[in-house]
Design a protein that fits this description.
Strand order of the largest sheet: 5-4-1-6-7-9-8-10
Strand content: 15-25%
Largest sheet: 8 strands, mixed
CATH superfamily: Vaccinia Virus protein VP39
Low-confidence stretches: none
Order of helices and strands: HEEHHHHEHEHEHEHEHEEHE
Number of domains: 1
CATH topology: Rossmann fold
Radius of gyration: 17 Å
Shape: globular
Number of helices: 11
CATH architecture: 3-Layer(aba) Sandwich
Number of strands: 10
Structural class: alpha/beta
Length: 282
Protein backbone atom coordinates (compact mmCIF):
# COMPACT_ATOMS: atom_id res chain seq x y z
CA UNK A 1 0.00 0.00 0.00
CA UNK A 2 1.51 3.30 -1.09
CA UNK A 3 -1.25 5.84 -0.58
CA UNK A 4 0.33 7.83 2.25
CA UNK A 5 2.05 11.12 1.44
CA UNK A 6 3.25 13.14 4.39
CA UNK A 7 2.73 16.45 2.57
CA UNK A 8 -0.89 16.41 3.76
CA UNK A 9 0.27 16.47 7.39
CA UNK A 10 3.55 18.41 7.27
CA UNK A 11 4.27 20.64 10.23
CA UNK A 12 1.59 19.20 12.50
CA UNK A 13 2.06 18.65 16.24
CA UNK A 14 3.53 15.18 15.66
CA UNK A 15 6.18 16.63 13.33
CA UNK A 16 7.14 19.16 15.99
CA UNK A 17 7.50 16.39 18.58
CA UNK A 18 9.43 14.10 16.22
CA UNK A 19 11.79 16.65 14.72
CA UNK A 20 12.55 18.43 17.98
CA UNK A 21 13.57 15.05 19.41
CA UNK A 22 15.69 14.30 16.34
CA UNK A 23 17.28 17.75 16.49
CA UNK A 24 18.21 17.27 20.14
CA UNK A 25 19.72 13.83 19.50
CA UNK A 26 21.85 15.19 16.65
CA UNK A 27 22.96 18.08 18.85
CA UNK A 28 24.26 15.66 21.46
CA UNK A 29 25.95 13.40 18.90
CA UNK A 30 27.84 16.32 17.37
CA UNK A 31 29.63 16.96 20.65
CA UNK A 32 32.12 14.26 19.60
CA UNK A 33 34.27 14.40 16.47
CA UNK A 34 34.04 10.75 15.43
CA UNK A 35 32.09 10.08 12.19
CA UNK A 36 28.40 9.22 12.23
CA UNK A 37 26.25 7.34 9.74
CA UNK A 38 22.64 8.53 9.73
CA UNK A 39 19.89 6.41 8.19
CA UNK A 40 16.35 7.71 7.61
CA UNK A 41 14.15 4.75 6.68
CA UNK A 42 11.05 6.70 5.61
CA UNK A 43 12.45 9.97 4.36
CA UNK A 44 9.52 11.56 2.53
CA UNK A 45 10.17 14.45 0.18
CA UNK A 46 12.45 16.53 2.41
CA UNK A 47 10.92 20.00 2.25
CA UNK A 48 7.25 20.97 2.29
CA UNK A 49 5.96 24.31 0.98
CA UNK A 50 3.01 25.16 3.20
CA UNK A 51 1.19 26.66 0.22
CA UNK A 52 1.39 23.40 -1.75
CA UNK A 53 -1.97 21.89 -2.65
CA UNK A 54 -1.56 18.82 -0.43
CA UNK A 55 -0.30 20.68 2.64
CA UNK A 56 -2.79 23.54 2.31
CA UNK A 57 -5.73 21.14 2.08
CA UNK A 58 -5.78 20.14 5.76
CA UNK A 59 -3.50 22.88 7.13
CA UNK A 60 -2.48 20.74 10.08
CA UNK A 61 0.55 22.98 10.48
CA UNK A 62 -1.77 25.65 11.91
CA UNK A 63 -2.09 23.64 15.14
CA UNK A 64 1.56 22.61 15.10
CA UNK A 65 4.59 24.52 13.90
CA UNK A 66 2.67 27.77 13.30
CA UNK A 67 1.90 28.08 17.02
CA UNK A 68 5.61 27.78 17.84
CA UNK A 69 6.59 30.16 15.06
CA UNK A 70 4.19 32.83 16.30
CA UNK A 71 5.61 32.51 19.82
CA UNK A 72 9.23 32.14 18.73
CA UNK A 73 10.52 35.26 20.52
CA UNK A 74 9.34 33.92 23.85
CA UNK A 75 10.23 30.29 23.15
CA UNK A 76 13.76 31.25 22.10
CA UNK A 77 14.55 31.79 25.77
CA UNK A 78 14.58 27.99 26.10
CA UNK A 79 17.97 26.97 24.63
CA UNK A 80 16.93 23.88 22.65
CA UNK A 81 13.82 25.57 21.26
CA UNK A 82 15.79 28.68 20.38
CA UNK A 83 18.24 26.61 18.34
CA UNK A 84 15.45 24.63 16.65
CA UNK A 85 13.48 27.74 15.72
CA UNK A 86 16.62 29.45 14.47
CA UNK A 87 17.28 26.47 12.19
CA UNK A 88 13.67 26.54 11.01
CA UNK A 89 14.10 30.20 10.15
CA UNK A 90 17.01 29.43 7.81
CA UNK A 91 14.65 27.50 5.52
CA UNK A 92 12.31 30.43 4.96
CA UNK A 93 12.45 32.90 2.08
CA UNK A 94 11.74 35.82 4.39
CA UNK A 95 12.77 36.27 8.03
CA UNK A 96 9.30 36.75 9.51
CA UNK A 97 7.23 34.47 7.28
CA UNK A 98 6.77 30.71 7.60
CA UNK A 99 6.61 29.36 4.05
CA UNK A 100 8.20 25.92 4.42
CA UNK A 101 8.34 23.08 6.86
CA UNK A 102 11.43 20.85 6.61
CA UNK A 103 11.11 17.07 6.90
CA UNK A 104 13.65 14.74 8.47
CA UNK A 105 16.02 14.76 5.44
CA UNK A 106 16.58 18.47 5.98
CA UNK A 107 16.94 18.24 9.76
CA UNK A 108 19.49 15.44 9.29
CA UNK A 109 21.46 17.03 6.45
CA UNK A 110 21.54 20.58 7.80
CA UNK A 111 24.36 19.83 10.27
CA UNK A 112 25.99 16.96 8.40
CA UNK A 113 29.76 17.19 8.70
CA UNK A 114 32.29 16.16 6.08
CA UNK A 115 33.17 13.00 8.01
CA UNK A 116 29.51 11.94 8.35
CA UNK A 117 27.19 10.21 5.88
CA UNK A 118 23.42 10.16 5.46
CA UNK A 119 21.24 7.58 3.73
CA UNK A 120 17.69 8.69 2.90
CA UNK A 121 15.34 5.84 1.97
CA UNK A 122 11.87 6.32 0.51
CA UNK A 123 9.58 3.76 -1.12
CA UNK A 124 6.76 5.94 -2.45
CA UNK A 125 7.70 6.88 -6.06
CA UNK A 126 6.14 10.35 -5.90
CA UNK A 127 7.79 11.17 -2.57
CA UNK A 128 11.13 9.81 -3.79
CA UNK A 129 10.82 11.91 -6.93
CA UNK A 130 10.42 15.05 -4.84
CA UNK A 131 13.34 13.99 -2.65
CA UNK A 132 15.58 13.62 -5.69
CA UNK A 133 14.89 17.25 -6.57
CA UNK A 134 16.13 18.58 -3.22
CA UNK A 135 19.52 20.25 -2.99
CA UNK A 136 21.49 18.19 -0.47
CA UNK A 137 25.19 17.76 0.45
CA UNK A 138 27.36 15.35 -1.54
CA UNK A 139 27.63 12.91 1.37
CA UNK A 140 23.87 12.24 1.23
CA UNK A 141 22.69 9.12 -0.58
CA UNK A 142 19.06 8.88 -1.74
CA UNK A 143 17.66 5.37 -2.12
CA UNK A 144 14.36 4.21 -3.59
CA UNK A 145 13.30 1.15 -1.63
CA UNK A 146 11.75 -0.41 1.45
CA UNK A 147 13.29 1.40 4.42
CA UNK A 148 13.16 -1.46 6.91
CA UNK A 149 14.66 -3.96 4.48
CA UNK A 150 17.35 -1.49 3.40
CA UNK A 151 18.26 -0.79 7.01
CA UNK A 152 18.72 -4.49 7.74
CA UNK A 153 20.75 -4.95 4.57
CA UNK A 154 23.12 -2.07 5.29
CA UNK A 155 24.10 -2.94 8.84
CA UNK A 156 26.63 -2.85 10.34
CA UNK A 157 28.12 0.41 9.08
CA UNK A 158 31.75 1.47 8.70
CA UNK A 159 31.61 4.51 10.94
CA UNK A 160 32.07 4.18 14.72
CA UNK A 161 28.64 5.69 15.37
CA UNK A 162 25.16 5.14 13.92
CA UNK A 163 21.90 7.06 14.28
CA UNK A 164 18.68 5.71 12.74
CA UNK A 165 15.24 7.28 12.39
CA UNK A 166 12.34 4.90 11.76
CA UNK A 167 9.21 6.85 10.90
CA UNK A 168 6.69 4.83 8.86
CA UNK A 169 3.08 5.75 8.15
CA UNK A 170 1.72 2.61 9.87
CA UNK A 171 -0.87 2.29 7.10
CA UNK A 172 -0.63 -1.48 7.41
CA UNK A 173 -1.33 -3.22 10.71
CA UNK A 174 1.72 -5.41 10.14
CA UNK A 175 4.04 -2.41 10.26
CA UNK A 176 4.03 -2.27 14.04
CA UNK A 177 5.45 -5.77 14.27
CA UNK A 178 7.81 -5.18 11.35
CA UNK A 179 9.23 -2.07 13.00
CA UNK A 180 9.77 -3.90 16.29
CA UNK A 181 11.49 -6.87 14.64
CA UNK A 182 13.68 -4.60 12.51
CA UNK A 183 14.70 -2.46 15.49
CA UNK A 184 15.60 -5.47 17.64
CA UNK A 185 17.63 -6.98 14.82
CA UNK A 186 19.38 -3.67 14.13
CA UNK A 187 20.37 -3.24 17.76
CA UNK A 188 21.74 -6.77 17.84
CA UNK A 189 23.98 -5.89 14.89
CA UNK A 190 25.06 -2.46 16.19
CA UNK A 191 24.59 -2.38 19.95
CA UNK A 192 25.89 1.16 20.38
CA UNK A 193 23.49 2.66 17.79
CA UNK A 194 21.11 5.46 18.70
CA UNK A 195 17.74 4.51 17.24
CA UNK A 196 14.64 6.71 17.14
CA UNK A 197 11.18 5.31 16.45
CA UNK A 198 8.10 7.45 15.91
CA UNK A 199 4.59 6.01 16.34
CA UNK A 200 1.05 7.43 16.33
CA UNK A 201 -1.35 7.18 19.23
CA UNK A 202 -4.61 6.03 17.66
CA UNK A 203 -7.95 4.99 19.19
CA UNK A 204 -7.19 1.40 18.14
CA UNK A 205 -4.21 1.34 20.48
CA UNK A 206 -2.10 -0.64 18.01
CA UNK A 207 1.05 1.13 19.14
CA UNK A 208 0.94 -1.12 22.22
CA UNK A 209 1.89 -4.06 19.99
CA UNK A 210 5.05 -2.19 19.04
CA UNK A 211 5.86 -1.22 22.62
CA UNK A 212 5.21 -4.70 24.01
CA UNK A 213 7.38 -6.34 21.35
CA UNK A 214 10.24 -3.94 22.05
CA UNK A 215 9.92 -4.34 25.81
CA UNK A 216 10.46 -8.08 25.49
CA UNK A 217 13.10 -7.80 22.77
CA UNK A 218 16.16 -7.44 24.95
CA UNK A 219 16.70 -3.71 24.44
CA UNK A 220 18.52 -2.41 27.47
CA UNK A 221 18.00 1.35 27.53
CA UNK A 222 14.94 3.06 26.01
CA UNK A 223 13.47 6.49 26.68
CA UNK A 224 9.84 7.05 25.69
CA UNK A 225 8.05 10.34 25.31
CA UNK A 226 4.46 10.95 24.23
CA UNK A 227 2.62 14.11 23.28
CA UNK A 228 -1.04 13.32 23.93
CA UNK A 229 -3.52 15.47 22.07
CA UNK A 230 -7.20 14.46 21.89
CA UNK A 231 -8.39 13.87 18.35
CA UNK A 232 -11.12 16.44 18.79
CA UNK A 233 -8.43 19.13 18.71
CA UNK A 234 -7.02 18.02 15.38
CA UNK A 235 -7.79 16.73 11.94
CA UNK A 236 -5.45 13.82 11.35
CA UNK A 237 -7.87 10.89 11.24
CA UNK A 238 -8.42 10.66 14.97
CA UNK A 239 -4.74 10.66 15.91
CA UNK A 240 -4.69 11.21 19.65
CA UNK A 241 -1.01 11.76 20.11
CA UNK A 242 2.56 11.29 18.99
CA UNK A 243 5.07 8.86 20.48
CA UNK A 244 8.86 8.78 20.29
CA UNK A 245 11.22 6.08 21.46
CA UNK A 246 14.94 6.75 21.72
CA UNK A 247 17.05 3.63 22.15
CA UNK A 248 20.49 4.35 23.66
CA UNK A 249 19.70 8.05 24.16
CA UNK A 250 22.71 10.36 24.66
CA UNK A 251 23.32 11.45 28.23
CA UNK A 252 21.45 14.65 29.07
CA UNK A 253 18.89 14.32 26.28
CA UNK A 254 15.94 13.75 28.59
CA UNK A 255 16.40 16.94 30.60
CA UNK A 256 16.70 19.20 27.54
CA UNK A 257 13.70 17.69 25.78
CA UNK A 258 11.44 17.69 28.82
CA UNK A 259 12.21 21.37 29.37
CA UNK A 260 11.51 22.18 25.73
CA UNK A 261 8.33 20.13 25.47
CA UNK A 262 6.99 21.59 28.70
CA UNK A 263 7.47 25.06 27.23
CA UNK A 264 5.42 24.32 24.12
CA UNK A 265 2.73 22.00 25.47
CA UNK A 266 0.34 24.79 26.47
CA UNK A 267 0.72 26.40 23.04
CA UNK A 268 -0.83 23.30 21.49
CA UNK A 269 -4.00 23.47 23.61
CA UNK A 270 -4.96 23.17 27.27
CA UNK A 271 -5.95 19.52 26.81
CA UNK A 272 -2.49 18.52 25.51
CA UNK A 273 -0.33 16.46 27.86
CA UNK A 274 3.32 15.43 27.70
CA UNK A 275 4.59 12.32 29.45
CA UNK A 276 7.86 10.38 29.45
CA UNK A 277 9.51 7.41 31.10
CA UNK A 278 12.49 5.03 30.94
CA UNK A 279 12.74 1.34 30.19
CA UNK A 280 15.91 -0.02 31.74
CA UNK A 281 16.60 -3.76 31.64
CA UNK A 282 19.34 -4.97 33.94
Amino acid sequence: MLSYQHAYHAGNFADVHKHLTLFAVIDHLLRKASPITYIDTHAGRGLYPLAAEETARLQEYQDGVVRLWQARNRLSETPLLGEWLSALGRVQDQDNRLDYYPGSPWWLSDRLRQQDSLKLIELHPVEHGHLMQQSLPSNVQRLHGDGLKELDRRLPVKTPRLCVLIDPSYERKDEYDEVARTAIKAMAKVRHAVLLIWYPLLPSGRHRELLDALRTGGLRKVWRSELIRPASLGQQHGMQGSGMLVINPPWGLEERLVTAMSAITLLLGEAVRYQHDWWVVE
